[in-house]
Write a structure and sequence with these properties.
By secondary structure, this protein is an alpha+beta fold. It is 38% helix and 19% strand. The chain has one domain.
Length: 130
């Protein structure tokens, strides 16, 4: 039974790798995945825009709530039984700092992908041939 649907950026190698890792860890299939760059994707259906989804991870709960950023990350790892990996994200007084850090990382995810060996042109990355 799916409990959270994640909207991800398939053009981002780090994002795609994380989705692959999450899928491997998700033994009870509690997560579903939608590529926000896929054909026919309409962010308006979820009450947001592709630009907003591109800026931060978004997830839709079974009861229709849209989770964004660190709240989505915490719910994702919690759904698959790995909440202990991200427990600092749930400490209320620290959330503003985590949000700023995550937003910075999300804005720079293509640069980080390049540093890890991916070639990125026009917002699309692929693994460099070595």
């Amino acid at each position: 039974m799916t409990s959270l649907t994640l909207f991800y950026d398939s053009r981002c190698p780090l994002c795609a790798a994380e989705i692959k890792r999450l899928a491997a860890w998700d033994r009870h299939q509690r997560l579903a995945y939608i590529d926000m760059h896929g054909d026919g994707f309409d962010a308006g259906r979820y009450g947001t825009t592709v630009a907003a989804m591109d800026a931060e991870l978004h997830g839709l709960t079974d009861d229709g709530r849209l989770l964004v950023g660190i709240d989505c990350i915490a719910a994702t790892y919690g759904a698959i039984g790995f909440g202990w990996l991200v427990w600092p994200l749930t400490i209320e007084w620290s959330k503003p700092a985590w949000r700023r850090l995550y937003r910075w990382f999300a804005r720079n995810r293509y640069r980080a992908s390049q540093l890890l060996g991916f070639r990125c042109d026009n917002g699309v990355c692929e693994l460099r041939q070595r």
